[in-house]
Every structure is written in C-alpha cells, then in structure tokens.
C-alpha cells in the first residue's frame, strides 16, 4: 500500500512529464523541439522534401518516355543528317543531274561475283576493275549463265568494302533484290549503273580510300517467295 | 556480311537501287552496244570517263527496247554529253 502510494506520486509526476512527450499533431513521430520555431522549420523541410520527391519522380517518368521516343527520333535524325549510311529522302534524279565530277580523285572499283552453294548459275563480272571519279555515273557488266536444263530463279544482294565508303556508293539501277529468272542454257548480261557521291571527296575519313570493291552474291529463290527490300519500311 | 552485334563497329546496310532493277535482256537485243562498251573499256585501260558515249548508247538501246524506263539522259548524269551533241548539230547544219 505504501509502495502504491509512492508509485502513485511517481505516476502523477510522470504524467506531468509525459505531457511533453505525448504524440503531437504530426503523427506518432515525436516533434523534437518543443518550441513552435523549430516545428515550423521541420514542416518547411518536410514540404521541401515532398516537392523534391515530386520533381525526381517526374524526371524518372520523363526519362522512361524519352527512351521510348528515342527510336523514331533517331531515325528522323539519321535521315536528316545521312549518318550511318541512310540516304536523304528524295535525293535521286535532281542530285544526279546537278552533280559535278571531282576529277582529282580517281577511284578504282573492283568487281566480285559470288554464288551461294545451292545455285548452279555461272556468275562472273565482265571487267575486273574500272576507274571512276566521284560525281560521274558509270556502267559495269556482270554475266550469268544457267548451264542446267531447268529454269532457275536467282536473287542477289551486294556488299561494298570498305563499309564506310558504302554510304557514298549509289546504284541508280542494277539487278539486285529482285528475282531474275534464267531459262535453261541461257546467258545474259547484267548491268550495274552506279555513281560515287561527290561528297566522298570531302569526307576526311575517305581521304586514303582509293579502292572500293563491289561484290554481288546470287542466291536461289524459291517460287512465290517475297523478300522484303532492305531499309526501313 | 557482318553481324550487327557489336555496338561500335560500322556494318554495311545494303540499299535498294534508286530506279529498281534492270529487266533481263533475254534476247540479247543490246549485246552489240554492250560489246562496243566493253571494247572501249579494254582499250582505254578500264577508265570509265573515256567510255561514257558507249555507256549512253547502251542505255539508249535499253530504253528503245523497253528494257529500261524512259528517262531523259540528263537525269542519268550525261548532261555534258547531251550538250556536246546539241552543240555539234547546229555547227554541222
């Protein structure tokens, strides 16, 4: 009983002290300071923190959106500046009409012909090399013969080495990417009409390049197969 | 052909020709013009600039025989040769 009485007094004292550590208006976390000045400061900090979190969240969402938009934007950029080998849309006939040959850069273009193992055509270039200047159109010939007794349909693709010169190598008309049918024992001439863009002469990376190799490879096409043209559709 | 797996290497992307594909000359209608062009090339040491007249003649043959879409020759880069021809004609007449 006596203990109780003393405890009671302690309780009462504790209650009075406890009034200071009672949960405040800001939730279960106790406000550190008791005077209103520090409380105001803490509220200010808390408000600033919340707006900072808002900004950071908006920036994160913006980054995700930008990464999705990057694909079409990059495509547009490539077409506008012609980087990575994409040609400017609508280059074409006006450029060819207006371009001037750059006489001081003579370039040797060698020709290579390949066939895939399964096609039985004899395919070879009719000239091993040709000397051209940028800005001037040139004609070259390949020859293909079908020595078998069945008609064979072939389709070809090409390659230009060095790769960086490939973006300046423009074919006006050739025989690639479309099915070509050769009847039995038939031999045809296949022309390639091309030019090297005059901007080749102004590219510092192409200053040492004076040999370009054009290489065609023929594959056998199955009936009714439709191959997509390369490039963005 | 290179696989495009490495980030920094430049790989080659083939591009379709501007005017599409030449129809095949199954009947050899323009072979004579082609032979003349090849002969010119061999004689000039395979220099393309020396044989542009023959190249123009071959393309004209193709256009006449419907083996190539008809196109004014200036658009094919033969503007200077056309001008030469038209200058010669008034001189002759």
UniProtKB/TrEMBL annotation, chain A:
<dbReference type="Pfam" id="PF04442">
    <property type="entry name" value="CtaG_Cox11"/>
</dbReference>
<keyword id="KW-0472">Membrane</keyword>
<dbReference type="GO" id="GO:0005743">
    <property type="term" value="C:mitochondrial inner membrane"/>
</dbReference>
<feature type="transmembrane region" description="Helical">
    <location>
        <begin position="52"/>
        <end position="71"/>
    </location>
</feature>
<dbReference type="GO" id="GO:0005507">
    <property type="term" value="F:copper ion binding"/>
</dbReference>
<keyword id="KW-0812">Transmembrane</keyword>
<comment type="function">
    <text>Exerts its effect at some terminal stage of cytochrome c oxidase synthesis, probably by being involved in the insertion of the copper B into subunit I.</text>
</comment>
<comment type="subunit">
    <text>Interacts with CNNM4/ACDP4. Interacts with RANBP2.</text>
</comment>
<protein>
    <recommendedName>
        <fullName>Cytochrome c oxidase assembly protein COX11, mitochondrial</fullName>
    </recommendedName>
</protein>
<dbReference type="InterPro" id="IPR007533">
    <property type="entry name" value="Cyt_c_oxidase_assmbl_CtaG"/>
</dbReference>
<keyword id="KW-1133">Transmembrane helix</keyword>
<dbReference type="InterPro" id="IPR023471">
    <property type="entry name" value="CtaG/Cox11_dom_sf"/>
</dbReference>
TrEMBL record, chain B:
<feature type="region of interest" description="Disordered">
    <location>
        <begin position="1"/>
        <end position="20"/>
    </location>
</feature>
<dbReference type="InterPro" id="IPR009069">
    <property type="entry name" value="Cys_alpha_HP_mot_SF"/>
</dbReference>
<dbReference type="GO" id="GO:0005758">
    <property type="term" value="C:mitochondrial intermembrane space"/>
</dbReference>
<comment type="similarity">
    <text>Belongs to the COX19 family.</text>
</comment>
<dbReference type="InterPro" id="IPR051383">
    <property type="entry name" value="COX19"/>
</dbReference>
<protein>
    <recommendedName>
        <fullName>Cytochrome c oxidase assembly protein COX19</fullName>
    </recommendedName>
</protein>
<dbReference type="GO" id="GO:0033617">
    <property type="term" value="P:mitochondrial respiratory chain complex IV assembly"/>
</dbReference>
<keyword id="KW-1015">Disulfide bond</keyword>
<feature type="compositionally biased region" description="Polar residues">
    <location>
        <begin position="1"/>
        <end position="12"/>
    </location>
</feature>
<keyword id="KW-0963">Cytoplasm</keyword>
